[in-house]
Amino acid sequence: ATARAAQQQQQAEQAAAALTAEVLQREVARRRNFAIISHPDAGKTTMTEKLLLYGGAIHEAGEVKARKSSRSATSDWMELEKQRGISITSTALTFEFGGCQLNLLDTPGHQDFSEDTYRTLAAADNAVLLVDGAKGIEPQTRKLFAVARMRGLPVFTFVNKMDRPALNGFEIIEQLEKEFGLQSYPVNWPIGSGDRFVGVYHRPSQKVVMYEKSGAAGRAKGARRSEYALTDPELPSLMEPDLWEQLQEDVELLEVLGDELDMDGVMAGKVTPVFFGSAMNNFGVELFLQTFVEQAARPGPASTRQGVDVAPTSPNFTGLVFKLQANMDPKHRDKVAFVRVVSGKFEKGMKVRVARSGRTVTLAAPQRMFANERQTVQEGFAGDVIGLTNPGAFAIGDTLVTGPTLAFPPIPTFSPELFAYLRCAPNQKKPFLKGVEGLLGEGAVQVLYSTDEYITDPVLAAVGQLQFEVVQYRMKDEYGVDTTLEPLQYCVARWVKGGWPALEGVGRLFNTTVMKDVYDRPVLLFRNEFALQQVLGEHGPKLGELSPFALP
Ligand code: G4P
Q1: Whose CA is nearest to atom 31 of ligand 1?
Q2: Backbone angles phi and psi of 373, in degrees to 5
Q3: Whose Cα sits closest to atom 21 in ligand 1?
Q4: In terms of Cα–Cα distance, which of 103, 30, 13, 20 is closest to 314?
Q5: How do beta strands 360-362 and 100-105 pair?
Q6: Mutation choice for ligand 1 from 37, 46, 65, CB with most ligand atoms inside 8 A
Q7: Ligand 1 pocket member 45 (CB < 6 A)
Q8: Given a cut of 90, is residue 430 above it in pLDDT?
């Protein structure tokens, strides 16, 4: 009888494991995770709103915008963000479309917050490149694209604002090729732009989709239907003769470009499917979503420092902490750690180990962010982002595990370009140090110290001026400390890979200062790129390899 019971027990366990495996397979297969990269004003907020509208996550256009301007109600320091009209915080929005769960990682738009964007892109599987049709590729897009490229993310391009006078489609394609080395595969193609925007030609179906202004009866002149086959005899009468002629020419030219989509190229981030539309008028967004859901990369295996890959369907839970944020809700004085689920199933209340410290933590109050409202999450799978109230146990780049101890590779940081001593009044030293530690732990800013033991004031190292302002604002707001900044005349930082030994024997360095980071590693600061080149020319071999990023 005992043998039989044991056998039954084993069978039950096997059945449960098979069921879990099936659930994991199914859930991972329907996850699509992405971040939008764009230059401020290209229409990211508008696009996000329209995507959510399709997903049924919001019910009225204007909700995201409304949230954007009512943020001060939920967080004090975001007042700064309101004053400057920029988005500092990063959230993950979740919605359903076409049987898939889409997770949109919202990237901060302002260039000073590239650090955060870096981290957000470390948690993304796909990038949506949003381009203003009139302006083409802009500086901020270049910076962000470099990050997406480094991670080899598949890129989907949406050319927005076609209802305004725009560049020719071929000019955009050429920019993508020249600047990013991206081969384009136009999925749809614009017919006219601005006042003469008639619609798009959808290549896979060989149909023309007529432009309609959202809500209003704005359908293109004379069109009775929203779609026409390219061969439809009625079609030429629906646009001015030159546009019709242009369309036929374009269709031919596009065929020369190739009509087969190279999916391997898309997955490798070398080929980008391109869409044209108008987010504001909700035109072209659904077409985009349909293709995106089909073609976007699913959560894939992740490499680890241990050399083994973690499959997203592995039964063991693993997660990556990619962003920390304090005091999102001033009423609760809390901290949130954003975790990307990499494998297994996340469950509310589960116990995980932090690979770095070995500490076991119960994930008690998991949250998913919707704009600035929180919903408690019961479960999550690879590709999902979960906001955990942070008991101080997490640092950026931490790996959370339930199975064997594994660690994901470190998240790179941008090289700082601005440096300044941060100081306070002598009687505020205690809260000051607490504040520096808090903001540092959160990764809000990098900190360096002088090698002179009598100079104890921290040196803030930032990518943009706004990072300084945020630190000062938060020091005052959250820790009650008034601070002053004393800028340093340096703008290039290099970490010495060989450490202190590499610096010995190298004599006095011209126009250069040596500082140390919080891990006591030497960092060289240069007044300009020229000074760096000079030092390299003179001492390069002795100094050995230098890195623009904080070493892992
Ligand atoms: P961002 O988040 O990338 O910074 O851009 P956002 O969506 O806030 O859009 C920037 C401006 O561009 C907004 O105008 C928005 O309405 C407009 N816009 C977005 N998509 C389109 C489009 O497809 N066509 C046209 N014509 N305009 C578009 P605004 O005047 O700054 O704000 P609002 O008064 O319209 O809210």
Answers
A1: 41
A2: -100, 155
A3: 280
A4: 20
A5: unpaired
A6: 46
A7: yes
A8: yes
CB atoms within 10 A of CB 137: 19
> Considering Cα of 114, then 334, then 346, then 353, what sign does the dihedral take?
positive
- Largest interatomic CA distance in the chain: 87
Query: Dihedral of CA 216/157/118/464: which sign?
Result: negative
Rounded Cα–Cα distance for residues 384 and 11 (Å): 32
CA–CA separation, 308 and 301 (whole Å): 10
Interface ipTM above 0.90: yes
Can you tell me whether residue 305 is helix, strand or coil? coil
CA proximity to 492, closest of 453, 427, 536: 536
Token pair belonging to 62 = 């204007």
Question: Which sign does the torsion angle of CA 431, 432, 437, 442 carry?
Answer: positive
Cα of 161 from ligand 1 centre, angstroms: 8
Q: Which residues are CB-contacts of 484 (< 8 A; sequence separation ≥ 6)? A: 422, 423, 424
Cβ(41) – ligand 1 distance below 6 Å:
yes
For residue 140 and ligand 1, the question of a CB distance below 6 A is answered with: no
Return mean pLDDT, the chain: 84
User: Counting beta carbons within 10 angstroms of the beta carbon of residue 275, is it exposed (0 to 12), middle (13 to 18) or buried (19 or more)?
Assistant: buried
Distance 47 CA to ligand 1 centre (A): 9
Give the amino acid at 301: P
- Neighbour tally for 156: CB within 10 Å: 23
Continuous H helices in 208-284: 241-257, 263-267
Alpha-carbon distance 363 to 348, whole Å? 6
Q: What is the pLDDT of residues 188-247, one digit of tens each?
A: 999 999 999 999 999 999 999 999 876 445 556 667 778 999 999 999 999 999 999 999
Give the residue, 142 or 55, on which the prediction is more confident. 142
Q: Where are the beta strands (DSSP E) in 430-519?
A: 446-450, 459-462, 483-488, 492-496, 512-517
Q: Give 102-165 as a DSSP string.
A: EEEEPPP-SGGGHHHHHHHHHT-SEEEEEEETTTBS-HHHHHHHHHHHHTT--EEEEEE-TTS-
Burial of 331 (0-12, 13-18, 19+ CB in 10 A): exposed
Count of C-beta atoms within a 10 Å radius of residue 216: 8
Q: In whole angstroms, what is the distance from residue 491 CA to residue 485 CA?
A: 16
492-496 and 351-354 strand pairing: unpaired
| Angstrom distance (rounded) from CA 174 to CA 184 | 9
The pLDDT, as a whole number, for residue 465 is 79
Which phi and psi angles does 150 have, rounded to 5°? -60, -35
The whole-number pLDDT of residue 80 equals: 44
